[in-house]
Write a structure and sequence with these properties.
The structure is a single chain. 43% of the residues lie in helices and 4% in strands. It is built from 23 helices and eight strands. The protein is elongated, with a radius of gyration of 34 Å. A hairpin with a 2-residue loop joins strand 7 and strand 8. With 429 residues, it is mainly alpha-helical.
Length: 429
């Protein structure tokens, strides 16, 4: 698509050429030995054999007439055009009209023509659909674009082409004002290999080609950024295990850097890679309690080996596990908290008096599970909960329930856990 957009914008011919611009000029000159006239120029430019010349300077057309006039016709080859030539061409009204939005564009008094001609001749927008360097989604030839350099982000190019339309931000800058062009172009072909599986990612853990300010700011890696650019060996080793699932114990024995990570741990006789693989296969996500079912809670919370492996996950504290696995009288409380969170979303913007008057003793919020979670609230939040649920008294909790309020912001780091435990915290806003 972009190939034809560029042709239309530039008014420049770039085909699998059999005729060069000079060929077109020579043909017009031969037809105009007695002087350039509208008829002599048209005799060439309107012939089927010279359709490739339509966008050449020899056949330039503006305001109902060909630009070739008297003894003057623009004959230079495209790649040899210079500032001086552009300055000459763009003083002639017809050529200036023909090339006004492109080759006769000037930014801050500097002619853009030479750069635009170079850009059009660069092959950045290639017609070869099977070129290995070309991205099928954008039609960009990355090799040609890298050779062209960050001039692609110049005001001249931006003046005729929206560089943000290509699907990724090539022209962003660092906080210090340095161009990100080369960094992002270097990262692009690497990221495109990631759909081949974990083996393709392994060489690029904490790679400077991906883990830099430019790539981070571009969004190319999206959620992979925190994964691939994390110095915690749990992340890399988790991916390495995926690439060695045929014999994980052998892999762990042969890989010292992973032996202390979650995937190679053995807790109460349970090899942790096995339950972690089960969690992945079932789509269970600790950051989204709605994905966790009764099967998960019974398996993960009541089996000491599985539970130990979960607590070994990076960023998962003992208190996180306790909140996740809190159960009272056979009921696991995390789903109860999740439903309360959905229910209390409607309270945003309400004043406390209205919340208390409207929702006092509502069973969705005022129940044994939510009362047990009260231990995670601060003093103000706990006081408000007591106002909304005055009839709810603490009951005996399971051995896995918290015994004291969390005292630091590091507790319950996982966003899903935060959403359930702090459902009541919304009261104070």
């Amino acid at each position: 698509m972009y190939h034809f957009v560029i042709l239309a914008i530039f008014g420049l011919g770039y085909c699998e050429e059999t005729l060069t611009w000079k060929d077109c000029a020579d043909a017009v000159a031969q037809a105009s030995v007695s002087g350039y006239t509208q008829q002599s120029v048209g005799n060439v430019c309107q012939q089927a054999n010279y359709t490739e010349c339509v966008y050449s300077p020899a056949c330039a057309w503006f305001d109902g007439a060909y630009c070739a006039d008297g003894d003057y016709i623009l004959t230079a080859d495209q790649e040899n055009w210079s500032d001086d030539l552009f300055n000459t061409v763009c003083t002639k009204p017809c050529y200036a009209g023909f090339y006004a939005p492109t080759l006769c564009l000037a930014v801050d008094g500097v002619p853009c023509g030479p750069l635009l001609a170079k850009f059009q001749m660069s092959g950045i927008f290639s017609f070869e659909e099977d070129e290995p360097e070309e991205d099928a989604d954008t039609g960009l030839n990355f090799t040609a674009l890298l050779e062209f350099g960050d001039s692609f982000c110049s005001p001249c190019i931006a003046g005729i082409f929206n560089v943000t339309d290509i699907g990724f931000p090539l022209c962003i800058q660092t906080d210090n004002g340095d161009s990100c062009f080369t960094s992002i172009l270097t990262a692009l072909p690497i990221v495109q290999t990631f759909d081949q599986g974990p083996e393709a990612m392994l060489p690029y853990f904490n790679s400077p080609d991906l883990c830099n300010e430019c790539v981070s700011g571009s969004g190319l890696l999206a959620e992979l950024s925190e994964f691939l650019c994390n110095p915690d060996p749990n992340y890399k080793c988790g991916l390495m295990v995926q690439a060695n699932m045929d014999d994980v114990p052998a892999f762990c024995a042969a890989t010292p850097e992973c032996q202390a990570t979650a995937v190679c741990l053995i807790v109460n006789g349970t090899e942790c890679w096995e339950p972690l693989a089960v969690i992945e296969a079932n789509g269970w996500d600790f950051e989204d309690v709605s994905t966790l079912n009764v099967t998960f809670f019974r398996w993960a919370c009541l089996d000491q080996g599985v539970g130990g492996c979960i607590k070994a996950l990076p960023g998962f504290e003992e208190e996180d596990f306790n909140a996740l696995c809190l159960h009272i009288d056979g009921t696991f409380c995390a789903p109860v908290g999740y439903e309360a969170k959905k229910y209390t979303d409607a309270w945003v913007g309400m004043d406390q008096q209205t919340v208390v008057a409207t929702y006092m003793n509502d069973p969705i919020v005022c129940n044994d599970c939510m009362t047990a979670y009260k231990a995670y609230l601060n003093e103000t939040e706990a006081a408000l909960y007591s106002l909304v649920c005055p009839a709810t008294s603490p009951t005996a909790q399971s051995a896995s329930s918290p015994t004291e309020a969390a005292s630091s912001s590091t507790s319950l780091k996982l966003s899903g856990l935060l959403s359930i435990v702090y459902a009541i915290a919304m009261f104070v806003y």
